[in-house]
Design a protein that fits this description.
This protein is of the alpha+beta class. It is built from six helices and 17 strands.
Length: 300
Amino acid sequence: MTSTAHQSSDLQVRRLSGSLGAEVRGIALGSADAADAEAIHALLMEYMVLFFPEQHLSADEHLAFGRLFGELEAHPNLDLQRERPEFFELRAVDGSGGIADEWHSDITCEQHPSKFAILQAKVVPEVGGDTLWANACKAYDELSAPLRDLCDGLTAYHNAGPHLAPDRGWIHPVVRVHPETGRRSLFVNEHFTRRIVELSDAESALLLGHLTRWVQQPRFTVRYRWTAGTIAMWDNRCTQHHVLNDFEGERVVQRVTVMGDTPSPAAPLPRWDPYGSTTATFWRDTDMRRQLKAQRSHAD
C-alpha cells in the first residue's frame, strides 16, 4: 500500500498490520528537511508508528532529524551527565533489556509525556529482541459504549515506581484526545499507571487491569523485527509499546525524544470526586493531593 499523504513521489510506504504501522523507504533521514518532515508527520498521523530501514544515522544526524519535529528533551529516568543529554543509548545483553518489557507509553509519570520517540537500532541480535506497538485509539473505539462513557470521565495516577522514583508522578485522564487527529485513546498502561483516582482500590484494580490487558490484544498491535540501521518513529500520544527480552547476544538502540504536551481529557474533569480522598493511601501522596486540589479549584 502506498499512501497519498506525502509530497515526495520517491517515498514507498508499506502498511504492516491492520491496526497501525508502516515501513517507509525512499528517503535519507540524515539529510531530511522541513518539507520531508511535513510528509513524515502526515504519515505518522495516519499510521502512528513508522519504520525507516537502512538509515545508519550518526548522533548529530539523529538529533538534527528529531529537531525537525520540535524541542527535544532528556529522559528523566536516565543519567544526564553526557555531552548530548537529549541523545541516549541503551545496551542490553542476553535479554537483560531493563524494564521496557512491559506495555507502556513513554514517561506518563511526567506532567508532559513525550510527543514522539525516534529510535535507531544500532546492534541487533540474530533472533529475538522485537518490539510491539499497540493502537490505543482502536482499543478505545472497540470498548462498549457504556464503558467508553465511564472511562471518559475518569483520571488515573501514574508514577515512576518502576524506575525507583515512586514519589514522582502525575494525574492524567484515562482517555485523552489527540490534539491533531481529534481521536480518543486509552491513556493507561501497566508500567506507569498505579490506580484510577475516582474508584476504590478494588474497583480500580478491576477496571485498570481490564483496560491494560485490553490494549495488549494482538488485533490492536504490530510486531517489528529490527535490522541494524532501522529508525522507528512513533506517536506516544496514541500508542503503547513493549520490548521482547527473548534474545541472546547484544542489543543496542539510540534514541531522541520530542517534548510533549498536557493530555487533553475526553470530557470535562473532574466528573466525580476522588474516592476516599481523606483516607485512601494514594491521597497521602503530597504531590497527588496538590494536583487534585488544583483540579477541583479549576473546575469550580
